[in-house]
Write a structure and sequence with these properties.
1 helix; single chain; 5 strands; alpha+beta; globular
């Protein structure tokens, strides 16, 4: 009879959005923030300034939508409209 081995898997706690955003701002500190508007065109790693949500970093792009990391959470915004 085989003994079951006791393995423990460490679960990583997701990084706080504010801390992750701070790291991305440091990484892209040479970039000038772009003002967000629905008609604007954005690319991955752009820093944007949103009137309501503040500064954020574009982390993903989908057809006419961008996912932006803000200090509280990731938000999906429209673009190219």
């Amino acid at each position: 009879m085989k003994k079951e081995s006791k393995t423990t898997t460490k679960t990583r706690k997701p990084m706080d959005p504010a801390k992750k955003l701070e790291r991305l701002f440091e990484k892209f500190k040479e970039k000038t923030p772009l003002h967000y508007k629905m008609s604007g065109s954005f690319k991955r790693d752009d820093i944007i300034e949103h009137d309501t949500f503040g500064k954020g970093v574009v982390i993903d792009i989908d057809y006419k939508k961008i996912n932006v990391l803000f200090s509280d959470k990731i938000r999906t915004l429209v673009c190219d409209r």
